[in-house]
Fold this protein.
Amino acid sequence: MYRSANYVVFVNYDDFFDDIKQQTAENDTPSWFFSGYDCDSLALEPMTHFIETCLDSFSTQPLANLEIRTKSTQIRNLLARPAIDNCVIAYSLSPEEVVSKEEHKTPSLAKRIAALKSLQQHGWKVGLRFDPLLKCDNHEALYGALFEHVFSELDQPSIHSVSLGPFRLPKPFFKKMIRLYPESSLLAASMNMRDNMLSYDEQTESDLLNFCETRLQDYIEPEQYFPCVSVS
């Protein structure tokens, strides 16, 4: 979302890791750090080598835990090194109909699942992030089929965590996206402002979350589930 025609990459890696080491040293309990929320840091890994450098640092800090959020299949470097116990590779997953229509230039659902299977087989902890949940006319059929497909392909007991998250977007980001993608049906949906974020109305959001949470209970154990918001 930077106002630039070029990719923006922060290269002061040492500053990141020095600060993480300092924060971790100040606590005697595990801490969590996250990469890939405002961008997909794994997608540019062949060029930046950020994740490789990140894992080198975290491998020496057992109390510092890392989650890498991604949609990318750039996992060659991950498969070329031993998995570390304090890292989770978490994939954002949506029905293929949503991926092809809204998640432009990202890997297909099938390719993401194939990457997850390879990572599991190599010993990496993996997470499933059904986030954001998107409103569509046949959302129950789409998300029901998504859960059935995903959990038929992966080793369920070794999945580290599963989460659900509603669609929410800061208003400045929403305005920029409208300018960039004025014909997007996703952005044309009715939105409300709540807690300084644009999201679906409370009833729509609750219906989506309730349906998906109920279906997820057929596939995972309670201790694997980490909702992003409470379901009303």
Summary: The longest strand covers residues 125-133. Residues 13-224 form a domain with the pyruvate-formate lyase- activating enzyme fold (CATH 3.80.30.30). The CA atoms of residues 17 and 57 lie 7 Å apart.
